[in-house]
Amino acid sequence: MTSRALCALLLALASPAAAQEAAPQATAPAAPEAAATEQAIPEDIRALFEAMRLPDILGAIAAEGRADGDELAGTIFRAGPVPSTWGRMLEAIYDPEHMEAEMLASLGRALEGEDTAAMLAFFDSEPGRRIVAQEVETRLALSEEDAEQEAREAAAVALAEGSARVELLRRYVEALDLVEYNVVGALNSNYAYVSGLLDGGALGQGMTEGDILSDIWSQEGEIRADTTEWVLAFLLQAYEPLPDQDIEALIAFSETEPGQALNAAIFDAFDERFNSISRALGLASARYMTTEEL
After folding, report:
1. Does the structure show a pLDDT above 70 at 189?
2. pTM, full prediction
3. Domain-by-domain residue ranges, the chain?
4. Rounded distance, CA 205 to CA 112, Å?
5. Nearest-CA neighbor of 290 among 190, 204, 193, 206?
6. Residue 197 pLDDT more than 90?
7. Do 84 and 25 touch, CB atoms closer than 8 A?
8. How many Cα atoms are found within 13 Å in the side-chain-facing hemisphere of 49?
9. Where are the alpha helices (DSSP H) in 162-219?
C-alpha cells in the first residue's frame, strides 16, 4: 500500500536523469552497534518479539521492499540497464537482521516500565497463539497482489451484507485506532521518502518542504479510504476460521492498559523503521537520479 504510493509520488514529482554503474553506492540507515543492542534488550521484550512472530513479519516486509525497489528501478533508470549497485543498495536497506535489531531496541525503549507480563500472558494463551498464527499466515498470503484483491472483494461483499463478524471487527479496529495509526504511518513514510529525494537534490531548487507537505497531505483522503478497506479485508480473512470468543478476548485485551501500550509501541516502532527505510531509499534514489549519464 505505502510502497505503491511512493512510486506514484516519484512519478509525479521527479524527473530522473539516466544513471550508470558509476552512480554512487547507497548504504542502509546507520546500524546500532550489534553488541550494545544485544545486551540492552530485556528478555521479556525478546519473548514478546518472538511470541508475536515479528521476525516473520519483518522478513516479509524486507522481501516486499526489495521487490518494490526492483519495480522502482524501472522508473529511475527508464529503459536503461539497472546497475548492480542498485540491488546491493536494496539488500542493505532492507536487511532483516538490522530491521530486527532496531525493532527490538525501539520496543525496549517504549515498553520500559510497562506490564509486559500481562502482554506475554495474552500471547501465550490459546486465543493469543491462534490469533498470531492467523495474522502471520494472512500477512504472508496477502503479499501476492491477486490474493489481496480477492480479500478486498470478499470484504466488500461482507460489508454490503452487514455481517455480525464485520461489526465485531469494527469494534476491534476502533479499540486500537488501527485505521488512524496506519494512515499516519503511510503519510509519514511517504514524507520521509520524498524528503530524501529533496535533500538528495532530485526535485530541483523550486521544491520546498512546504510543497512536499502539501502534496503528501493532498493524498490523505485516498490513503484513508484505501487503508480502511485494506484493514477490514485483512482482518476478515485472518480471523475467518476463529470463533467469536477469540476475537472478543482480543478486544478485551486491546482495551486494557497493557494492550493499549503494546499497540502504541508496535506502531511507533514500525513507524520509525519505515521512516528510516523510506528516507534512505529516497536519498539513494536521488543519488542515481542526479548522476548524469557517462
Report:
1. yes
2. 0.85
3. 2-289
4. 44
5. 204
6. yes
7. no
8. 21
9. 164-176, 178-199, 209-217
- Cell, residue 186: 503511510
Any idea which of 35-49, 86-100, 274-288 has the lowest mean pLDDT? 35-49
Could you tell me which residues come within 8 angstroms of residue 208 by beta carbon, excluding any fewer than 6 positions away?
Answer: none
> For residue 91, what pLDDT band results from cuts at 50, 70 and 90?
very high
Q: How far is CA 166 from CA 13, 179, 215, 291, 293, in A?
A: 39, 15, 33, 51, 54
Instruction: State the pLDDT confidence band at 292, using cuts at 50, 70 and 90.
Output: very low
For the residues of 55-107, what is the DSSP string, one character each? HHHHHHHHHHHHHHHHHHHHHHSTTSPPPHHHHHHHHHHT-HHHHHHHHHHHH
Q: What is the DSSP letter of 292?
A: P
Q: Which three cell numbers stand for residue 288?
A: 542515481
- Would the CA dihedral through 212, 214, 216, 219 be positive or negative? negative
Contact 115, 35 (CB under 8 A): no
The whole-number pLDDT of residue 78 equals 87
Q: Measured between alpha carbons, how far is 90 from 67 in angstroms, rounded to an integer?
A: 9
- Cβ atoms of 6 and 193 closer than 8 Å: yes
CA gap 111, 202 in Å, rounded: 39
What grid cell was written down for 24?
554512487
Burial (Cβ within 10 Å: 0-12, 13-18, ≥19) of residue 32: middle
In sign, the C-alpha dihedral spanning 107, 109, 110, 115 is positive
Identify the residue whose cell numbers are 454490503.
160
pLDDT at position 79, please? 78
The residue type at 79: A
